[in-house]
Design brief:
alpha/beta; Rossmann fold; five-stranded parallel β-sheet; 6 helices; YtoQ family protein
Length: 146
């Protein structure tokens, strides 16, 4: 039986690939899903629905189209890993964590110590806080093979 893990958050580093490689090396039966990580493609997700004169409405349409994917994949997952990077504010990642909390969906946060304070509520609802992708892989190994 496959374990479904949704990878949410920061798109500017290879953390997703590191977790996937670690899970494969550990022989874990995990299916990974994610939001669209191509920033331009994500921003343009609703463009086919018609041109907008104000940026708010373009973002509004694209966020709703993106939400179809995000909500569906989070709901179908067994676990969500939410990555917060130190370079950008990931409001979407915080939203995903809140959605998981509302659903009762277990999630793990992945971020550095320098942003513990602003994420205190997000971390408080998480099942674990990891600082490295190796720690996330170890959580997966434990859950699936212990």
């Amino acid at each position: 039986m496959s374990f479904y893990v949704y990878l949410s958050g920061e798109i500017h580093t290879d953390w997703r690939d590191a977790i996937k490689r670690g899970a494969e090396a550990a022989g874990l039966d995990v299916v990974f899903t994610s939001a669209v990580t191509d920033h331009d493609a994500s921003d343009a997700a609703g463009d086919h629905l018609g041109e907008e004169s104000q940026p708010f409405w373009r973002d509004h349409k694209s966020s709703k189209v993106n939400a179809i994917r995000t909500k569906t994949l989070i709901e179908q997952s067994d676990l969500v890993v939410v990555r917060f990077g130190d370079k950008y504010k990931q409001w979407n990642a915080a939203f995903d964590a809140g959605y998981c909390a509302a659903l009762g969906k277990p999630y793990v946060t992945l971020h550095g110590e320098e942003i513990i304070h602003p994420l205190k509520e997000v971390d408080a609802a998480a099942m674990a806080w990891a600082t490295t992708t190796d720690q996330v892989v170890e959580i997966l190994r434990y859950v699936l093979k212990a």
